[in-house]
Design brief:
heterodimer, A: about 150 residues, mainly alpha, Arc Repressor Mutant, subunit A, 3-stranded antiparallel sheet, 3 strands, B: about 160 residues, 2 strands
Chain lengths: ~150, ~160
């Protein structure tokens, strides 16, 4: 059986594996430093998408938060319960439609969201320093293409 | 009107990476299961690929994937037990060498073909320059990861 030719460069799956978790590790460290190390890992990015305006963040429909978690409804609901229980989110009934729930960041949630965003910005800045704008465009385009492949399969 | 670039719709990199990294895994897992190799442990496929390519720097490659020595040792044991590789110890210096079995070679080929299928789909959707940028960006993220101190808390404890 003929053996496959040795690749001249690392295959993409190896590059993906090598790069994975760079943001996760930075986010975990930032959360720990902010005293928020009990944020469930699969909710960190969602926290940054919620309103953080002062003095009172605005409420977001719970359905929108569920959608942003990319989990099953049941798993997302449990995750939101955990975030409420751990005082990162405040939940209330929508005053205009009592069938719907709304969520917003608590003060602790704002602290965690800011820590997560700062960690992401730090990695983004380190990346931007080391690659060109065209390469950054290619990275984003490639990852977006992966997501579309993932969604279609 | 020109078709907008795929990059015009992108989101934040960490969010994109979370979804993207599962694309190869899903494609490989499906094909391995279809060919009776569902017992190939993750990330055993990488080690099989390095062995198939007679890679001279397997320890460095494995370390670059974020796999620790202890985890590699356990991975090798499982691959041995499940008949994907063999291990021979040199009686003169005690060094061990690994080789693919016929089963290991077949699983590696199935895995490689699944990855090639994803690569081809990607090439269909991206320009050469975008693929070069993707490769460069991932390589640099890997370098940044290596330069950071270890995670502040262990996996799973934050749940």
């Amino acid at each position: 059986m003929p053996s496959r030719p040795r690749p001249k460069e690392l295959p993409l799956p190896s590059l993906m594996r090598g790069a994975r978790d760079v943001y996760r590790d930075a986010i975990r460290r930032a959360l720990a430093n902010a005293g928020c190390d009990d944020v469930p890992p699969n909710s960190t990015l969602t926290l940054t998408e919620l309103d953080r305006s002062e003095p009172e963040p605005k409420f977001t429909p719970q359905a929108d938060v569920v959608a942003s978690l990319h989990l099953s409804k049941q798993a997302a609901s449990q995750l939101i319960d955990t975030l409420v229980l751990r005082q990162y989110l405040e939940r209330r009934t929508d005053p205009e439609d009592r069938r719907r729930m709304e969520l917003r960041l608590t003060s602790r949630g704002c602290t965690a969201a800011s820590a997560v965003q700062k960690a992401i910005d730090t990695i983004d800045a380190a990346l931007a320093q080391r690659i060109t704008a065209d390469e950054l465009h290619g990275l984003r385009a490639g990852l977006t293409a992966f997501r579309k492949l993932h969604d279609q399969s | 009107m020109p078709t907008p670039s795929i990059a015009d719709t992108y989101g934040a990199i960490p969010e994109l990476m979370r979804v993207a990294r599962g694309t190869y895994k899903r494609a490989v897992d499906e094909q391995l299961a279809a060919h009776g190799f569902e017992d190939l442990p993750n990330p055993g496929g990488y080690l099989l690929a390095y062995l198939a390519n007679n890679d001279e720097s397997i320890p460095d490659r494995i370390e670059g994937l974020g796999i620790k020595k202890r985890e590699l040792s356990q991975l090798v044991d499982v691959l041995l037990l499940r008949g994907f590789i063999t291990r021979q110890v040199n009686p003169k210096d005690g060094t061990a060498s690994l080789a693919l079995t016929e089963r290991g070679r077949a699983a590696q080929q199935v895995s490689a073909e699944a990855c090639e299928h994803v690569d081809e789909e990607l090439k269909r959707r991206l320009t050469d320059a975008e693929i070069a940028g993707l490769r460069r960006g991932l390589a640099v993220l890997g370098e940044i990861k290596q330069s950071l101190p270890g995670p502040a808390i262990r996996r799973g404890l934050a749940r």
